[in-house]
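Objective 1b: paired records.
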Amino acid sequence: MSLIGKSVGNYQVKAKLGEGGMGAVYLGEHPLIGKRVAIKVLLEELASREDIVSRFFNEAKAVNDIGHQNIVDIVDFGKMNDDNGKPIVYFVMEFLEGESLQSRLRGRGVTFEETLHIMRHICSALSASHAKG
């Protein structure tokens, strides 16, 4: 199922950014104000499992409870049905422009100093996560 060209919440889906074991991430854009977001959508077979949907939404709530600058901000989440009545479960996140760490590591790599910089940010986010339980 491709969502490109369809609406999810208030956003028009423009492109698929990536896909993983639990779902896909799309680029969305608000049609009136032009705000770009990332839309994470559960795989169709997982969207009908209440335990998975509950975990998915708990992830969104946890991110907002933590509220840390190094953790992507989730601005909305919801459920809807596709054209065939099958559930679509999603959340809308801030869109971060730039190169992924995976792409960077496969390309030119990172220096020791850059690794330290990245690890400081990761540890800061992990510390904030642990502080919120």
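Objective 1b, second protein:
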Amino acid sequence: MTATISAIADPDHARAAPSHPDPYPYYGRLARERPFFRDDANGWWVAASAASVTEVLTSVICLTRPLSEPIPEALRGGAAAEIFGRLVRLRDDEARGKLKEAVTKALQSVDLGQVAGLARTRAAELDSELGRTLDEDKTTQFMFALPVQVVAQLLGVRRERFGDTMGWLGDYGAAAAAAGTGIPALTPELLARGHRGAQALFDLVSAIRNDDEQRGLLLDALMREARRVGCEDERDVIANAIGYMVQGYAAMASSIGLTLLALARRPALRAQIAADRTLLRPFIQEVLRCDTVTSSTFRFMARDGEIAGHKLRRGEMIIVLLAAANRDPALNPDPDRFDIAREDRKYLEFGAGAHACPADKVVPLIVEIAVDHLLARGVPLERLEASLSYAASGHVRTPLFKR
């Protein structure tokens, strides 16, 4: 991706790529040379080209979870299963269509100007809470705190509960990822924390739902849209309200961190942005294409069928490499070139088809405000590379900075 990263060995396989220092030569080769193939050593299929990734994401026979296990067996019997099994992004049942419409319409109804105002106010408050001097650790804390706390505030979570809420989200997210992907390894302690965090989140949002004075505009909108489309299960509404925070917890933090890295690695562009802040918006869009947060996702065959000219069997798993598709020259000419003036930019960060993420306007806005604030505060860009590691994950590319 950049000249600052020396040549290193490829990832061992597709699921090792998100936490690899530089997986993009590997992704690019797969997109060009192995658009859709079976990884016999690991027992899964891989979609890498833009065409095959789009085909999988839009196919009615490719499900987000296997029919035999809609909820990971390890999560069953606890509160984490209650959230996991109700999230619309992980469902392909009859209720999914109406619920997805409610979740999407509610998010789209929120005024972006109000979101921006909340984000700027919360960023200023975090300055006081984290301390005026930014170092690598505080940069990481800020990039995780701001986005999820803005979303929490939109739901009605009070400021004094932000710390607890983030802890519960982290515990639930770690357990759900471990149970669903095996990365990190699921331990009894991790699972227990995940169930406790999930129950605490459910209790918190349930209480807010029933409090007309505390309930935020996003939760209000979700409840209204759910009624409109005929979603009668209030626990579905609560779980998907939590889902807004779950999605934002790692994804937006990662996007902020990857944008900061891209700025650190490109001093000429950084100087241009310092002189003209309006360039930050297309810069972020190019980061979303070039250094993709959601590196990959899963799909499972609902029945025997053909995908990208290959015959697959019911239950087989496909690793869908969004990051590789974004480096496919068929999607973007000269895809390895970082170009904020790129015409007709295309990327699959937010997916495609029935499970496309509806946050394609909200996420870049919050990321832009966060990065703009950090630049004004004097974020130590020159030290980020030396302090960089990537969180262990089979799907999400999350940079961490630590002194």
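Confidence is low (pLDDT under 50) at residues 1-6. DSSP finds 15 helices and nine strands in the chain.
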